[in-house]
Amino acid sequence: MIRDFTYTSLPQRVVFGAGSLQHLGREIDALHARRALVLCTPGQRDKAERVAAMLGAQSAGIFDGAVMHVPIETAREARKLAREQGADCAIAIGGGSTVGLGKAIALDSGLPILAIPTTYAGSEMTPFYGLTEAGLKTTGKDARVLPRTVIYDPDLSRGLPVALSVTSGINAIAHAAEGLYAQDANPVMDLMAEQGIAAMTRAIPAIRRDAQDMQARTDALYGTWLCGSVLGCVGIALHHKLCHTLGGSFNLPHSEVHTVVLPHAIAFNAGVAPKAMEVIARALGTPSAAAGLYALAKDNGAAVALRDIGMREQDLDRAADLAVSNPYWNPRPIGPAQRDLIRDLLQRAWAGAPPVEG
C-alpha cells in the first residue's frame, strides 16, 4: 500500500557520462554566464586550471582556498574575489568542501553554481549548506545554493585515492539511508535510496580491488547522484546531526566521520524504523543494516573508530551536549532527555566497537 506523501522535484540539470566535461562550454552558455570563477581546494588546482583553460575568455580566475566545513572567513574571501572579478557564475570542481564553498557564494550573491564532482559526497544535489564560525557549524536550506547544473564525469574521479573513495562512498550511502526514515520520506525517494545504496555497495569493493575500474567508478558516481538526490529532497536526522557536530566543532575529516558514525546512528534508529532497515539491508545484501554498514567500512580498509580519525575521548561529553542541545528531527527522540544514550553511542563509535541496536 502506498501511503500519502508530498514530493517536490528540484530544478536541476545533470550531465552524466565518461568524458562529459567536454560539454562544459555548452553548459556555461545554457546558464547565460559570461565570466565563471573556478573554485577548488589546493590539491585540485590542476583540475581547476584545466577547467579555466577550457573556458578561455569566460574564465574569471581560480580560487583554490576551499577547505573542509567552509569556514566563514574562507567564504568571505571567495565572495570578495567573485565580486572583484565580475563573476556571474561559479564552477565548483572537487568534493564537498569545494561545492560547499560554491554554495556559500550563491547564498550571499545568488550566483548560479555549476558543480563538477570528483568525489562521492553528493552535496551537489542538495539545497543544504553549512558554514563554520567560531568552532560551530551551522546548516541551512536555501534554493539559491542548489547547483543549477552538475557534470558527472567518471574520468575525473579516476585519481581519487582508494581510501577516500571508500569513505566518500559510505558518506553518500548515509544520505540515502537517512532518507528512508526522514520525516518527509516518500516512495519515490525510497526507490532512489535503495538503488543508490546498491550501486555504492557494488562500487566500493570493486574500486578497492582496482582503482582504475571505470565501471566501478561509473557505478559510484551513479550512486552519488541517487543518494545525493535523496538528501536534497527529504530531511536529515540523527546521523547528520552527529556528523555536523563532530566535523564542525572538532574539525574531523568529513567523509571519515560519516563512515564511522553511520552504523551506530542506524542501529540507534533500527527499532523505530524497521521498513527502512529492511531496505538498507537488502541493498547491502546483508541480514542487518547496521552490521552490514560496519562490515562494508571495515572490510574495505576504512577506519571504524573516532579515535583513529582525531577525536579525543575527553571531548565526547561536549560532543554529546552539543548534539542534543539543538537536535534535528529524528524518528527516535534525540533531545536533552536522551543525552546519555547519545553519549553511549559516541563512546562505541570512538572505540570502534560494532553497532548495538536498542
Task: Please provide a written account of the structure.
Belongs to the iron-containing alcohol dehydrogenase family. It comes from Variovorax rhizosphaerae. Its EC number is 1.3.1.32. The protein is globular and about 60 Å long. The chain contains 13 helices and 8 strands. Helix 9 crosses helix 13 (339-351) and helix 12 (316-325) packs across helix 13. With 358 residues, it is an alpha/beta fold. The two termini are 28 Å apart. The longest helix has 23 residues, at 187-209.
Nutshell version of this structure?
The protein has 13 helices and eight strands.
What is the topology?
Blueprint (H helix, E strand, L loop, with lengths): L12 E4 L7 H7 L5 E4 L5 H11 L3 E5 L8 H13 L4 E6 L1 H14 L3 E5 L10 E6 L2 E6 L7 E4 L9 H18 L7 H23 L4 H20 L4 H13 L3 H16 L4 H11 L4 H11 L16 H10 L13 H13 L7
Parallel strand pairs: 1-8, 2-3, 2-4, 4-5, 5-8
Antiparallel strand pairs: 6-7
Helix pairs in contact: 3-4, 5-6, 5-7, 5-9, 6-7, 6-10, 8-9, 8-12, 9-11, 9-13, 10-11, 12-13
What portion of residues is helical?
40-55%
Rg from Cα: 19 Å
Largest sheet: 6 strands, parallel
Low-confidence stretches: none
**N-to-C series of helices and strands:** EHEHEHEHEEEEHHHHHHHHH
The count of strands amounts to 8
Strand content: 5-15%
Largest sheet, spatial ordering of strands: 1-8-5-4-2-3
Can you count the helices? 13
Quaternary structure annotation: single chain
